[in-house]
Design a protein that fits this description.
Oligomer: single chain
Distance between the termini: 35 Å
Bound molecules: adenosine monophosphate, magnesium ion
Strand order of the largest sheet: 7-4-6-5-9-8
Helix content: 10-25%
Length: 402
């Protein structure tokens, strides 16, 4: 059986980075930059005031109580106006350009204003309260690199740089096929013991939050003909994800289909728990990941293999779930034969990060994923851990989704 790392490496070697496209900044959230960005401008574009106050010459104000003549009033957006001469101060608003001659701004709170004069109640330091031209971004500076996730701050920076359009990687089209004779669609008039295809919903959601465009192929019955007929609709997809039908059962057909002409099976079986029966190969010429059907296995295998693949296709830099070390709140036991991805609740406790398992850990217990925000990753060979041991956690939920 392959290790998680080796299996992921093989999958990542078989999925391509997609070409790029231009999008407007309004539509750029959650996309990945397909170009390096070198600034052609200085941000801020000129020296300007960080405060509402008075721009003055520090040489004039070596002690408190000096009174200066107000030479001009500079609202934000004003031209710099006349230079500030000896004995003068310009009344200035936050963001307004610093007039020539001035080398500091004294906050309004530190002054006493009269009609045409101002008395300075605090000795200013040179450059105080001045935001200098290019202090955020200098012209010619490499500010963002390919593969950067476009979040609010990055999008704001691009706007400041006067770039209304940005080159991003295309989103992968990801086909999803559920399988199983016992599986029915939500809303279908179904027998009592039928299982609702919750995996269809979790997978479509996971694909969306990973930046892919999901394309749903429905539920195939456990017959090769039905599987193949539905998969034929996925030829244009960048990735196919199936759920179920990859175990050892008589009706588990995914591997058989991958072994047929025109398709391929690269590997089957991963050393992990849950998620052991995973198949990877190609179907209709498209890279295909056959996820196990148990809902927790489906999600866990998605996070370990499908998520990195979808992110790689978008040129993302970081493909893996963020890892943190946390202190175990209670003892853990494991058979130790495979790494175990135990669903956990990670939280702060004073200065510490602590984690506790969500409860029953069966691979069909989807509530363990719903309650949890991380996997506690128990390595192979670890059979028990006492409370207060430090464990590695992979965080899958931080309270918001894109
Ligand atoms: P399988 O891998 O096909 O043997 O399925 C393993 C378990 O997962 C069985 O109990 C299935 O009923 C369940 N299962 C398979 N597909 C789905 C699905 N789409 N939604 C919810 N449960 C599923
Ligand atoms: Mg099945």
């Amino acid at each position: 059986m392959l290790s998680v790392e080796k299996a992921r490496e093989i999958i990542l070697s078989k999925v391509p980075e997609l070409p790029s496209e231009q999008v407007s900044l309004e539509n750029a959230l959650g996309r990945y930059l397909a170009q390096d960005i070198i600034s052609s401008l200085a941000i801020p574009p000129c020296d300007n005031s960080a405060m509402d106050g008075y721009a003055l010459r520090t040489d004039d104000v070596k002690t408190i109580g000096i009174t200066l003549k107000i030479s001009s009033i500079l609202p934000a957006g004003a031209e710099p106006g006349n230079p500030v001469a000896k004995g003068q101060a310009a009344k200035i608003m936050t963001g307004a350009p610093i007039p020539q001659g001035a080398d500091a701004v004294v906050r309004r709170e530190d002054t006493t204003e009269e009609e045409r004069t101002v008395t300075i109640n605090k000795v200013p330091k040179k450059n105080e309260n001045i935001r200098f031209k290019g202090e955020d971004i200098a012209p010619g500076q490499l500010i963002l690199t390919r593969g950067t996730l476009l979040g609010p701050a990055v999008i704001g920076m691009l706007a400041s740089l006067r770039r209304p359009m940005v080159q991003v990687s295309q989103r992968p089209l990801v086909a999803v096929l559920a399988t199983g004779d016992e599986i029915v669609e939500l809303g279908e008039d179904a027998p009592k013991n039928a299982i609702i295809s919750s995996n269809s919903y979790t997978l479509l959601s996971l694909i969306k939050i990973t930046g892919g465009i999901p394309c749903y192929l429905g539920i195939a019955r456990d017959r090769k003909e039905d599987l193949k007929a539905r998969l034929a609709c996925a030829k244009k997809a960048d990735l196919i994800i199936t759920s179920g039908g990859v175990s050892m059962g008589d009706y588990d057909m995914i591997r058989e289909v991958m072994n047929e002409d025109g398709n391929s099976l690269a590997f089957w079986g991963i050393e992990m728990k849950p998620g052991k029966p995973l198949a990877f190969g190609s179907l209709c010429g498209v890279p295909a990941i056959g996820l196990p059907g148990n809902p927790v296995s489906t999600m866990t295998s998605f996070y370990q293999f499908a998520r990195p693949a979808i992110l790689k296709m978008q040129g993302a830099k970081e493909l893996l779930l963020p890892r943190v070390r946390a202190r175990l709140k209670e003892a853990l036991k494991n058979s130790g034969d495979r790494p175990h991805y135990i669903r956990g609740i990670l939280e702060r406790s004073g200065d510490d990060l602590v984690v506790s398992p969500t409860g029953p850990q069966g691979s069909g217990i989807l509530s363990s994923m719903a309650k949890g925000n991380c996997y506690i990753v128990l390595p192979k060979g670890t059979t028990s851990l006492p409370p207060n041991s430090f464990v590695e956690c992979e965080v899958f939920h931080i309270g918001c989704f894109l």
